[in-house]
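Task card 7
Instruction: Convert sequence to C-alpha cells.
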Amino acid sequence: MKHKEMKRKEFCRLLPLLPLLVGLAVMPVHAAGKENAGSPVLVEWGSGVSAERLLRSSHNTDFFPLSNNFVSQNNKIFCGPASSAMVLNALRLGKKEGLPHDRKSIEQDELAWFSEGFSPFFGKYTPGNVLNAQTKSRKEVLGKPIEIKGDMKSDFGLQLHQLAQVLRSHGLDVTMRVVDDDASAETIRQELAANLATRDDYVLVNYTRKALGQPGGGHISPLGAYDENSDSFLIMDVNPNRAPWVWVKSDDLVSAMRTFDTVENRGYLLISDTN
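Output:
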C-alpha cells in the first residue's frame, strides 16, 4: 500500500505537465547536433522519448524546482554564474529573507519616477550578483588574466573548483568530485542518481561539449533527472541558444567530464544548503 501511495503522489506531481508531455509524445525522436559514427546520441527535450523518460523516472525530484527557476545565460561565458543562480534560487527563493538584489536591470536615472523609499527590485540570485569578493571577479571570468601556475593568463569562465567557491561563498555545502582517469563510472552514476532522487540538493556538471558531439568547449549546467531504463541523465542546458536540454547516456556524460581543464579534470558538484 505504501508503494502504491508513493506512486500516486508522484503521478499527481506530474499532472500539471501532462498537456506538455502529451504534445511531446507525438513528436519524432532526433539527436541534438550532427550525428557522426561513434558519437553519443543525445535525445532532445522536445521529443516523445524525452517525455517518456521524465514520466517514468523515479529520480526526477530536482527537475521541478530547477525548471521553475531556470536561468538562461545572457552571454557566451556565463554558464557558471547562470547555473549557480538556478541552484541558489531553487534552494532559497521563497524560503529565506534577505536575498540579494541585482540592480543592473534598471539604470539609476530610470529610478527617478518611483516613490521615495520604493525599490522595484526583487530579492533573488542572478548571473549578475552571484560573483563577489570571495570569488573570481566578473572581469576575471570574462578574461582578465589571473595567476595560473606562476604565469598570468586569461582564464575564461569558471573551472570546477572556482565554481565550487562561488557557491560556498553564499553559504552552501558543496562536495566537489573531480573525474580523474581512475574514477569509477558506476560510482559516479550511483551518486548522481541518488542526488536526483532526493529533495533540496542539486548537481552541477562541468563537461566538454565536444565529447558529446556538440559544438563548443567547456560548459556547466545542472542535471534535472535520471532515467534507469535508458541509463541516461537530463542536462538542463543553460545555453538554449547553442543546445537544447538533452538526455545523455551515463557513460557518455562521465567521459565528457573526464577531460582536462587548465589545472585538473572537469567533474561535478553536489550542492545543498547548510543554513
